[in-house]
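Re: beginner question about structure tokens

> Can someone show what the tokenized structure looks like for a real chain? I only ever see the sequence side.

Sure, here's an example I had lying around. Input first:
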Amino acid sequence: MQLFRLLPLTLALGAALAAPAQAQSLLELVESARGYDSAWQSARAQLEAAERRADQARAGLLPSVGLSAGISRADTEVSRPPIQFNGTTRSVAVSASQPLYRPANRITHEQGKLGIDVAQAQLDAATQDLLVRVSQAYFDVLAAQDTLTFVQAQKAAVSEQLAAAKRNFEVGTSTVTDSREAQARFDLVSAQEIAAENDLRVKKLALDQLVGTTGAQPRPLAQPLQLPGVQPDSVATWVQTSQEQQPGVRQAQLALDVARLETRKAETGHRPTIDLQASYAIQHNPNGTVSAPGLNTRTNNATVGVALNMPLFAGFAVQNRVKETLALEQKAEADLETVRRNVAQATRSAFFGVQSGIGQVKALEAAEQSSQSALDANKLGYQVGVRINIDVLNAQSQLYQTKRDLAVARYNVLLGQLKLRQAAGTLAQDDVTAINALLAK
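And the corresponding structure tokens:
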């Protein structure tokens, strides 16, 4: 008789934990999201734009060449001595300039290269954020599926308990209270089933929108599951790593480096600039000139020289610009310290959250076994008349609630490990691959 009571739960759990034929792994959905997520694509485009800006900054160290050409018509009349001249002038010139000493341009080039590093850090942050968001949505769907499965299994068990209470009432071995209690619990579980179905529908829509597919079916975790531990098992090591590798810290450090370079560039406002200049010009006057009318002339002019430009006074603009950049440099230092503190706190919270989650999983695994034993004992007590129906119903609710909590706790531990690595700045595709290996085949 007890075997048949457990059969609905076994069938429900088996149907839920069996991977669908078209189920996708976590890695597959990550790759799908990478080609669809607009935030990640924006960060990648930003990196490409930074590379082009760096190339533009490098142009300030390279020579520049220009070509100019023109044609003009002149009508000239001189009263004394009387001269009337109408002539055309054609000209073409090529000029080139090579910076020899322009410290501001060299500093701008260094800032451009740092801009690439900033954009790369932003892309790294976007990549890590994408991995976490997809994993979060993935396990949200699995958690919602588990909740629906356990609610349906509980509904089936309560339905059997309701039928048993009605039979016992008909034969006179129980009161009508047992039937009413079972009916009330059945109605409550039915409402929970509706809510669970809607929650699963919402979670699936969120996953579909994130990865750009329709009807994504995540593969469940393999059973039995052995959760991996946190390595290294030292919060100080994780915090130290975050201070060196976390993308936010890297961006703040690079921003400080750029601010320092900006100060150096502002100080160059007092320095001279030296350029090497060369030009070659041709001027053709087919009708001659005013001084030599009617004489077809052509003039070729080639020049090479060095130009020095020495700033003397600019209304204190340079001095005030230096003061401004020094203040901005102090701001960048304060911003860096703020980011470091926030990252260290986030890393500690993530580390202890994972540690707490692992302990919670172990406690819930023990609680699951205890709840199952309590349910079996209450069922036996109900059969022999020492327990009432509400005791069995409460034991059933406790068991299924524990199962739901255990499933969610396992997902939270896996997500927590990804978030810990994200907080430390070390989250990579290999970390998702390791979790992907825990999924059912």
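Each token stands for a local structural state, so reading them left to right follows the chain. The mean pLDDT is 89.
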